[in-house]
Amino acid sequence: MEAPDSASPPDTERPTDPVVVSGIQPSGRLHLGNYFGALRQHIDLHQQHDAYYFIVNYHAMTTVQDAERLREHTFNVALDYLALGFDPTRRPSSCRATCRR
């Protein structure tokens, strides 16, 4: 009797489409480094896969303690994503904290 090949799981156990999870900290104005380092990939992956992106403004509180500035940075990050082609009706998205404007 031959042992089953355990190196590769059956096709039914493999995910059919990857899920992407990432976040960005709104600790200031976004710049070209943000675009080439993360935003461009976020937008591309958002159009191809299920992707969950978060504006993690609780994490930005270590550098931005002024609540109004933090709200402004959070709002501006959301606007930048939308301006670059992020479609919130197409895929899931979330803001970790309250995003009032």
Overall description:
The protein is α/β, with parallel strands linked by helices and 101 residues long. Helix content is 38%, strand content 15%. It is built from three helices and three strands, in the order βαβααβ. The protein has a three-stranded parallel sheet with strand order 1-2-3, covered by helices on one side. The protein starts with 18 loop residues before the first strand and ends in a 6-residue tail after the last strand. The relative contact order is 0.21. The model has no long low-confidence stretch (mean pLDDT 78).
Give the structure's gist in a few sentences.
With 101 residues, this protein is an alpha/beta fold. 38% of the residues lie in helices and 15% in strands. The protein has one domain.
Summary tags:
101 residues, alpha/beta, 3 strands
